[in-house]
Amino acid sequence: MRHRVTERGTRRSLADRYDPRANAFGCLRLALATGVLVAHAWPIGLAEPSFGASLTLGQSDLGTLSVQGFFVISGFLVAGSALRLSPGRFAWHRVLRTLPGLWVCLLVTALVIAPLVSLFERGTLTGFWTHSEGPLRYLAVNWLGAMEQYPISGLLADTPYGRVVGGPSAFDGSLWSLRYEFACYTVVALLAATAVLHRAFRFVVALTVGAYLLILNDLLSVANWTDRPPQRGAIGPLPLVGSFAADWALYLGFLFLLGACARRYAHRLPMTAGLALLAALVMVTSARVGGFFAVGLPAFAYLVLYLAVALPRTLHGIGRRRDYSYGIYIYAFPVQQVVALLGGADHGLPTYVLLSLLGTLLLAVPSWHLVEEPALRLRGWLATPSAGVTPRPPAAPGSLPVPLRQPAAVGSAR
What we know:
- The protein is mainly alpha-helical.
- The chain is about 60% helix and about 0% strand.
- The chain is built from 14 helices and two strands, in the order αααααααααββααααα.
- The protein has helices spanning about 15, 25-45, 60-85, 85-120, 135-140, 160-165, 180-195, 195-200, 200-220, 245-265, 275-290, 290-310, 325-340, 350-375; strands at about 235-240, 240-245.
- A two-stranded antiparallel sheet has the order 1-2.
- It is globular, with a radius of gyration of 21 Å.
């Protein structure tokens, strides 16, 4: 890829520095996925708030920030995919990248992990299959990522996290955010199908600005600037995907739109070490003073994109041929629940995190090689390229919906 170079010989815009085949997005996805696993170690294993909550005065934490970083990356990569592919082909790629891995994860959780948990907790499967929130209902209501049921058959009530919520707890709480990711994909597909994405992208910019104005209004609505954004109730329920929390839809949607705008206007976006340092200072200051969700998040989005093009080239190969980040996201939570149930957290936090990571990799690695990668080989099936367009193969397996923060009360949620 030929880069435009300034008179001083320094690449300064995002377009100048971004190479679709040589970037650190894969490395960042893997780091963010691991960040969510580590963040969950506190609430799932120790019944304590996620790491980082106290450092930000309760405004955020490692798990939440990892989630938000994924939406920035997703917006950037998905917008690039939608600009390159026909709407039908774009939708087909998104389906292949997300649903097969999710379906196998749901089956493993409901039909393998949950029965073993029942045998361990109760010594029997009596009542397991016929429970009002049994495994078959878990599969039926969550099959398209709606995640309308998290517990299975009343299990996991006597884990550290179960004692916090006061009853049966989630088997895979991280999957709560899939509906938001899928909603973003749907919006992008509609914008591409109506040619807005290609011919009237200023409308997308207007959506981004409008979302940010609502965020600024939230900042003026909270009692203290160190509060989290106010909850706005639910949007929905919508067919197939259930209901959305209005506050999460706004903030995750905003970050996704920021990533999309950065992709479209990469040639106008300065990407320098000086601006990255300024963004880091804004993040740290807002985390310690207040207003993080209104000021720190845009700065964080800039840092994510900067790291993707500025990290050493030795890291560019991570996640390009073997992208385990999605598998880590979808399997970490149930593995951490099981490790905690077996007493793994009793041996200290480092041991618990290590056991959780090893157990997660035992499922994430086969997920990639046996499910996700074979599904991606079908990208050329059914959908055909737009007339006169020869789409370039993606530089990486594609942006992921991972890893996202778990439902309320996990990871220092409100």
